[in-house]
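Supplementary notes for students who missed Thursday's class. We covered one full example, reproduced here. Read the sequence, then the structure, then the short commentary at the end.
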Amino acid sequence: MIKEFIVSRIEASHDGTPYVNVSFMDQTSGDRQQAMNPFGVKAMTFSSPEDLMKNLPKAMSNVLGGGMGVADAPTFKLSMREYEDLGLKVGDKVLIELKKPEVTGI
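Structure (token representation):
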């Protein structure tokens, strides 16, 4: 399966190792979700104070998990050399190919 993504975030590894974390956003679902909700992918609406209290834990987990869908985005950990060789920038379109290896035997 080959799928097109957009580079949405590039950040240094949090543990100080020479790696870069690159997050991707699915172009088709990201566009559709942002068009449906002007406040972002994970914004929630509440119709009553009771509804707010019932869904507050879910809303807080969305904020703590990245808020704008970053927690749901596929993220790759690349070495500095791989990152420099690819020359990725935020907004670049990339193709990611997923393959399931065929295993014979046990």
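Commentary. Residues 31-37, 64-70 have pLDDT under 50 and may be disordered. The first helix runs from residue 27 to 36. If anything here is unclear, bring it to office hours.
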